[in-house]
Task: structure prediction
Amino acid sequence: MKVAYYKGCLASLSAKELDTSTQALSPMLDIELLELETVTCCGAGDIHEAEPDYYLHLNARILAYAEATGAQTLMTICNVCTLNLRQANFQLQGDEALLDRVNKNLRAVGVPEYTGGVEVKHLLWLIAEGEGYELLKKVAHKGLKGLKVAPFYGCQILRPSKVMGFEDPDRPWSLEAIIDACGGEAVDYPRRSSAAASRSSRRARRPRSAS
Amino acid sequence: MLVGLKIWRYDSKSGDRALKEYEIDAPEEATLLDVLDLIKDRQDGTLAYRKSCRMMICGSCGMRMDGAAVLACKTRMYEIAESGHAPVISAMGNLRSSRTSSSTWSRSGRSSAPSAPGSSGLRPAARRARVRDPAGAHEPHPQGIALHQLRLLRLRVQRDGVRPRVPRAAGACEGNALRRRPARRDRGRAARVVQLAARDLGVHALLLLQRALPQGRRPARRDREARRRVRQARDRPRHGREARQVVRHLGEDDRLAARDGARAEDPGHPRGDQADEVRGRARGAGQGAAAVPAACRAEGGGGARALRHRQDAGTRRRRGHRAGRARAVAPRAQPRGRGARPVRRRLVRAAVHRRRGAAGGDQGMGSLTQADVTPGAEPTRKPEGGA
Result:
């Protein structure tokens, strides 16, 4: 399976282990990575809030370059990148006038046009569904050996459900499937799909606690 | 828009200068620096020039356009392109072939000297890099392309000025990153006042806030409790007589005089100093404190009355006051004179005059010159010169 690989900022800088492990695992799962060279940050949560139009163009550019590689899937390894790209894709695919205006700007700066033919998927989804699960069972030879693992999804890989749409945000299963494929035991607990307080919320004013 | 430029190019190997013409399609909002970037990216990668902040601060991109010194990042090309003019771009010493690095330029006076192959004046590290990848030196860096495209995209987005309906947090606005709102100066002042008040009263601030709320805004349960407390306080059984009001207006008649059986002619006693009674009595020689009780007894209970008055001080009404007050209620026969005196003093003086008048002027009870005598009895004369 050929996928356009978008690693984002963290996997390039502060969390290089994400990129390293993805590069190592993908051949074992029969995933061919087509790395995108001239891409930039997806904007995380800040640009989306401050300049929504620029955020659209930014992610449309990434989608356009992914489509230019010939792949139909753009694979991400970061939850925030997945949410941003999927949200931008959702808007562009649903509004032709918006897509035309964005393409006009992309053409003017030398970026290929985007026709809306790319689907953004997280590595987790590619592994959990289809043949990836069986392949992972084969390659996870060291395994977790019965280790009890508590999966934490966070919120951005699950919500909003109409944009993400892979699994039920209240009853996710993909991480449990991977833990099971690796020989571990997934532990259920109430806050596995709650938000972990992103940067924006940490900057917000804290409410005064009652003294 | 189609932008034409004529750029003086210098070859450090041969030392030749040549004017080279370029024509490129650039956006309308492009500056001279943007056009140079486009030329370098798409047409001629050997074009080299200095740039840094791209926002008219550092001055690195200074060059000459038609002989005039300009900042490339500041010079808009729209009007020049519309007029069809192709300006001549020359360096203020910073346009050169891409074979030389900026480190060579930083050495003053050496940029114009022709450089021989292998000794181009580059630093050893830069020279090695150039030898290592001679072909890649002509290819634009992908990250540079990305940044350049982003910059142009940003310009176009700002020109569009469109605000798509993207759900975002309240408080964010176009062009402003989320930032913390500055704390208001008066915020917390009311809370601070409450805290200080609570501290002074020794109660928790929350309790004070709840107490301070008007009835209509408090929870219903608290309103009920407050009303019950007031009702209980009002209806609780009280011992003794009902406390009288401290302040009584002269205009109102509470009928206390009638209740206590005060007579109209009762002169009453001044409230202030009970020693005035003793002071007013005449003392003869050898009469001192021992004679006072006898004199008082001889007066027919005056002393007893004074004693009783003293004993009952605090519980009984001052008859004089009641009678005096009753008289004060009556309309004045005489108009108010100038320099109106306080009512109390008037009443006391009136009572004193009455006593004097009843006892024959300067005699009788309360006389300042003689001891109290019963009418018809011989007065006890005061020693001459005595008080």
User: Anything to note?
Assistant: The mean pLDDT of chain B is 63. DSSP finds 14 helices and seven strands in chain B. The radius of gyration of chain B is 55 Å. Chain B touches chain A at residues 27, 41-42, 142-143, 145-150, 152-154, 156-157, 160, 162-164, 166, 168-169, 172-178, 180-181, 205-206 (CB under 8 Å).
